[in-house]
Amino acid sequence: MGHQQRPKDLDEQIASLERVLQTLREEENVEVLLETALGYLQAEFDWRLIWIGLYDRQAHRLFGKGGMTPNGDLSFLKQRFALNPGDLLEQVVIQLCPVEVPDLRSENRAGEWRKAAQTFNVQGTTLFPLRYKDRCYGVILLGTDEWGASPKSEEKTQLAIVFGALATALYQIEKDWQREQVKHPDESLLALISQLRELRTLDQYLQAVVEQTHEFIEPSRTNVYWFEAERRYFWRRVSNRQVSPGLGPKRPASGITVQDLGEFYQALTAEQMVWIGESHSSLKTELTGRLMQQIRARSLLAAPIVSEGELLGFMAVEATEPRIWQDNEKHYLRGVAELVALTAPLSEMEEKIEQTQLDRDLTAGIARAIYSDADWEATLKNTAEKLCSRLKCEYFLLLLYGEEQNCFEIVSQNLPRNRRPVPSPLKALDAADRGLLQECGEPLGIENWEEDGRLGAWREVLAESGVRSLLASNTRGKTAKSENRNPKSPVENRKSIEGLLVVGHSATRTWKRAERELVEIVSQQLGLILHSWQQSSQIDKYQQFSRSIESGLAVLQHSGEVQFGQQKSASPVIFPQLPLQKLDRNFARDVSQTISCPLVAVITWHPGQEWGSISAAVAANPVFALNPDAVIPVQTDALIQQTLARGGVLQVNLSQVPLATKRWLRSPGIGEILAVALQTAPEHAPAGIVVVADAGGREWSELSVNLLRSMVSHLAWWHRYLAVQSAAESQRLDLEMLNWYKQRRFEDFYRTVGAGVKELGELSQSILQSAKEQKDALKTLRYQQVLRQMGNALGSAHLMLKREPWRLQFARDAVSVSAWLRRSIDRAAPMVKQSQVLLEVNTEAAVSLPAGKTLSVRADSLKLDLILCELLAVACRRSEVGDKIEIRSVLLGEDLLELSVIDSGRKCDRQLITAFNGGSHPDILAVSPHRSIVQNLLICQRAVRLMGGNLSLEMLENNAIVARLVLPLATS
Question: What is the dihedral of CA 251, 256, 261, 265, to 10 degrees?
Answer without folding.
Answer: 130
